[in-house]
Every structure is written in C-alpha cells, then in structure tokens.
Amino acid sequence: MSEPAGQLDTVMQESRLFPPSAEFSAQSRIKSLSEYEALWNKAAADPSAFWEELAKNELHWFTPFTETLRWNEPYAEWFVGGKTNASYNCLDKHVAEGRGDQTAIIWEGEPGDQKKLTYAELLAKVCKCASALKSLGIQQGDVVSIYMPMTPELAIAMLACARIGAIHSVIFAGFSAEAIAERNNDAKAKLIITADASWRRGKALPLKHTVDEALKKSPTVKHCIVLDRVNEAVHWTPGRDHWWHDLMRQASAECPATPLDSEAPLFILYTSGSTGKPKGIKHSTAGYNLYAKKTFEWVFDHRAEDIYWCTADCGWITGHSYVVYGPLSAGATVLMYEGAPNAPQEDRFWDIIERHKVTVFYTAPTAIRAFIKWGDHHVTKHDLSSLRLLGSVGEGINPEAWMWYHRLIGGERCPIVDTWWQTETGGIMMSPLPGAIATKPGSCTKPLPGIIPQIVDASGKEVDAHHGGWLVMAHPWPGMLRGIWGDDERYREVYWSKTPGKYLAGDNARRDADGYYWIMGRIDDVLNVSGHRLSTIEIESALVSHPAVAEAAAVGRPDDLKGEAVAVFVTLKSGQPNEALRKELVQHVRKQIGALAQPDDVRFTGSLPKTRSGKIMRRLLRDIAAGKESVGDTTTLEDYSVLASLRQDEE
Ligand code: PRX
Fold first, then answer.
1. Is the residue at 551 inside a domain?
2. Whose CA is nearest to atom 13 of ligand 1?
3. Is residue 31 part of a domain?
C-alpha cells in the first residue's frame, strides 16, 4: 500500500452547498433530509429486517426464502432457500403486470439506425436467445463469455443467460485477444457471443477477428455466436461458429425462466487488482438483483415517464447494474447508444438527449472533461430542457467539471448524483438521494439506506471527522460480491484480511463534519484511467513479456482528460532506446491488454530507482512522471540514481 491510512488529511475546502429545488423534492421518492435519515437509521438498526421486507415486496419469488442473511465471514448468503430469476424480474414480471407494451429499450446505433423494443418484445427475444443457448448445450452453471458492441443484442444475451442460469462474463469490446483468452480460460467459458464488428467513429472494429485469435488459446470454448452488426467479411469455423440470426430463426419461442437459488451466480465480471491477474468478481442472483433495482430507484428517483440514459458500456459494472438489471427490474425506459460521443460531431450526446427527450443522464467525469474541452457551443445549440437529473460515476468529479455539468447540461436546475461504488459492491453505495440531500461539488455525500461505511486507520479504529483513512463497510449488503472466481484465498486476502469483519474497499476517504464522504483515491497500485481500473502490475507484466524489456514500472500521472494517464519506465536487456521501440512497446501493451491500457509516456532508464531493500521507488517515479522532478533530457537513457539516493529514506 502506498500511503499509510490516517496520513492523508486534506486541505481541500469546498463549502458550496446545492440543495434540490422545492419542486424537485416535492415530486421525489424521498423528499427531505429527515426522511432520508429516518430510512437510513431504520435500516442501520436492523439491516436484515430492512432488506427482508424489500426483498419480499420487490422481487418475484418462485419459492419464498426462509432466512434473510447467513453471514459466515467473509461469505454472505442472502435470502436463503428462495428461488427467483433476474430475467423474470426484468421482463416477465412487467408483462404479467400489464406493462408489456411499455418501451424497455430505445437504441441508437452510431450510424444513426434506431430500434425500440417493448418489454413484451424484449422478453420474446430473450426467450429465443435462451433457447438458442440451450440448443448449443449450455446449461445452468455454465459460463458464457460475451464480447459485443452496445446493441440491444448485448442486453438480450445477458438476460438470456440469466434466464437459464448460465453465468455471463461480459468482456468489454476494447480488450485484446490475449485478455479475452485469459478470461475465457480462468472462467472455463463454454461459449462466446460476439459480433462481426462494431462501429466506432465511422470505422468497423473487427470483433470477430479478435475473438478468432482468442479462441486459438481458449480450449474450453466450443461455440461462437456471431451477430451480424456491420456486414463485415469474417472467417468462419464450421461447427463452432453460428450466426445469431440463424439461431434466433430456428429457436423455440418457449423458454420459461428457470427458478434459481438466490445465491446462484448471475455473472462474473473481471476487474483489475494489484497483481497481474484480473479478478473474476462473482455476483449472485437475488441479492444483486434487489440491490441494483432499489439503488436505481432511489438514486435516479425513478418515475414511470422517465427516459433514462446511462452512457456506460455493458462491458463494465455500470452497464450491468444501471443499463440492464437495475432499470429493467424497475420497469424503466432505457436509452442505449452504440458509439462514440464525437461521432459524427462532438454534439452527438446532446443531439440524442434533445431528440429522445432524455430526462435522466448518467455519465463519467472523463467524458465531462472531454465535453468541456470540445467547447460549449456543441451544447448550447441543443435544447436540453427535458433533463431533470444528472449522474456521475467512475472517479471523483472535480469541482470545476461539476460546476460545468451543473450549469451547461443541467441548466442549474438538475441535481447531480455523484455515485461512489465499485465492481465489487454491485451497486451504488454512497450518493445523494436527489430530492433529499443537498450536494457539495466533489463529494459523493452520504451512504444509501442499509449501507454502513466507516473510515478507519490501519488498526481498524474509526478516525475522527476530517481525517483520511481506509474506507470500509461495517455490515454486509445484498449486492456485495460473493467472492473471486476460483480464488477464495485472494478474496479473503484483498478484502477482509487487513480489517477483519469489515469489507475493505481499497479507497482512502474522509468524512466532513456534516457527515459527507470525500473519496481520496486508491490505497493500492490500481490506476483509474478514464474511470476504468488498471493494475500497474498488469501493465508491467505486459511490458516485460516483450523480448527487449528487462524490467518495467508503471505509474499514474495526472491528466486533464483521463484523470490519470499511464507512464511507464523501462530498462532494456541490451541496446539503446529509439522511437521505433517506444512505439512498439505501446503497441505491445495494446495487444496484451487492450487500447485502454496503452501507455501515454514511455521513458527509458539505465536502471529503475530502488530502495535498499529492492522495492521500486514508485513515489519518485510518480513525481518524475508528473514533472515534479526534473531529470533533464528524456530522449536518451535517463539516470535516476542521484534522485533515488536523495529519496532512500522517504519511500
Ligand atoms: O476508486 C474508486 C473509483 O473507482 C473505483 C471502482 O472502480 P470500478 O470497480 O471499475 O467501478 C467503477 C464504476 C462503479 C473505486 O474504488 N470511483 C468510482 N466511483 C467514484 C470513484 N471515486 C470517486 N468518486 C466516485 N463517484
């Protein structure tokens, strides 16, 4: 861990307070601070009773549960003995209750093509897709990888898996063939669903080609389903490869949702940790489903007439919880967009909001910073008056970006919900409830009902207001991860060993005198690049797999757009650095992990600065990368020995 807890007290002063308008509060689900506090206190007094009541009322049960929480630290089982199905809760329940004609998904492709699916239509497609999976031998408990563009078929594929108890593992469509193969092998995936290609800024990205490469190294994957999205020529392996449209044509329309144990795994989602190997975060059926639904309704203050748009890709947890499972369980109308925010022009998002009359908009600070850079004129030429609520996720939102979002996009009338959560938490943990909690730019404000955060020092003791420390959760919650796929040891070690009895989130935070939480960054070697988690060690392993590289260190440096950029320091086995090699190393990381991990700076050094005990001096490297330490000419081999000897005792 890079910083000891308790030593990160901050000098940041942010005193502006933005209460919701009386009009907004009056129409909200939770209308005042006192109403929120009453709910939070009730939940904290008896979390199990609180969740029990919600689970009974909010989910469909084929068989009712008999025990609310069985807590065998660090393993939680929620709603034990019950049987439900997330696909049923997202689809059949609404159709059965007479909402089949309501629009579930409004989709816009990057080239401008559009589709609308009602809940009844979505259910019909999910049934066929689930039948198709069964026809290829997929059974309950099998893992299905999904590597697809943001099309309705991606949501259909996820819900089809959920319907029959297959466990989906969605792999973001920017990952490389190596990364796909690693995930396929770790999860022992039996089938993968992809598309010929995906549209990105007018170009077709060849997804099937990347999957073909991955499948050369994925012996457990026997079948590949291919959606014809772009009409690209693809290589075909007969017997293994199947067109989506052929399977859907032949598939049975009958496919009732399988009653599944509450704790049956719903999905695995890989995320980076502080080792080179990504962690397969495991989520369960009932607890996750309930948590995604309730947090969606609370935080986005869901109303039947909303057109809700979350810009996240389903390759990330935000897409799982707040494009698919949360909003669909709540019966919302969800907008999905396939492409880039600057295709064909930098006003694409505002154009979409104006045309579809989006009311709730949820995006990431990195996107907001790009919009600011592109210029206000792209925004002001559109009518954004349909918006009533804005959200932010993935990293802290700096107060300047917050104010711009508030003024330009929200017209100073829309509350902003800055939502703190993680792949592991399954859903939002801390966020303003928009009708009840006044916001402070840069703070995720307060915990949701049923969530009990604490800030502790390294001995597990709670620290006082305004003191930095480790953020932990003092009580299990239904949406929490159920483990790391195939690695119990790592699950215990990462989340439970340093703060026994409490979930260690991996972030530093502080709480102010008003009880508002301020996230202060990671406590491990995990970078946050454009709102995505990257492990420095994963990048280092990728670099040393190149034949020219002897040793490598990756660190983050501040970046105006991405939040953090990736800076790498490399020593060579022999020879001198040159521009061609620099480019080759960038491409090499891209090939090993994917474009999102591509280094922004590559610096060559004769040796990496190390402490006497042999640890890489990461703090020194971070300062060098950020330009705080001058090292002279960076075009040749750099020498940090003098700086290193000055810093020996600090690191
Ligand atoms: O460091 C926190 C940061 O993102 C991490 C979780 O990353 P991931 O699992 O990829 O999930 C991202 C989407 C939920 C956290 O440990 N983070 C996320 N949201 C915020 C944040 N940091 C500050 N403020 C936020 N609102």
1. yes
2. 394
3. no
More confident residue, 636 or 99: 99
521 CA: nearest ligand 1 atom = 1
Shortest-distance Cα residue to atom 24 of ligand 1: 396
Q: What is the CATH number of the domain that holds 638?
A: 3.30.300.30
**Ligand 1 atom nearest residue 428's Cα:** 14
Q: Whose CA is nearest to atom 8 of ligand 1?
A: 422
For residue 213, the number of C-alpha atoms closer than 13 Å in the C-beta half-sphere is 13
Burial of 562 (C-beta count, 10 Å sphere; 0-12/13-18/19+)? buried
Q: Which residues contact 21 (CB under 8 A, 6 or more apart)?
A: 413
Report how many domains make up the chain: 1
Q: Which of 345-359, 481-495, 571-585 has the lowest mean pLDDT?
A: 571-585
The model's pTM: 0.93
Give 482-509 pLDDT, tens digit per residue. 999 999 999 999 999 999 999 999 999 9
Is 50 exceeded by the pLDDT of residue 8? no
* Centre of ligand 1 from the C-alpha of residue 347, in Å: 26
The answer as to whether 261 is a domain residue is no
Average pLDDT, rounded, for the chain: 94
* Residue 394 CA, ligand 1 centroid: distance in Å: 4
Say which residues have a Cβ less than 8 Å from residue 628's Cβ, sequence separation at least 6.
Answer: none
| Residues 356-398 pLDDT 10s | 999 999 999 999 999 999 999 999 999 999 999 999 999 989 8
Residue 562 CA, ligand 1 centroid: distance in Å: 14
CA–CA–CA angle 486, 491, 494 (5° rounding):
140
Query: Given ligand 1 and candidates 267, 274, 420, which is best to mutate, with the most ligand atoms within 8 Å of its CB?
Result: 420
Domain housing 534: 525-650
What is the C-alpha to C-alpha distance for residues 396 and 562, in angstroms, rounded to an integer?
12
Ligand 1, residues 274, 313, 507: which to mutate, most atoms within 8 A of Cβ? 507
Query: Which ligand 1 atom is at minimum distance from the Cα of 423?
Result: 9
In which residue are the tokens 């506090």 written?
A: 37
Residue 590 lies in a domain: yes
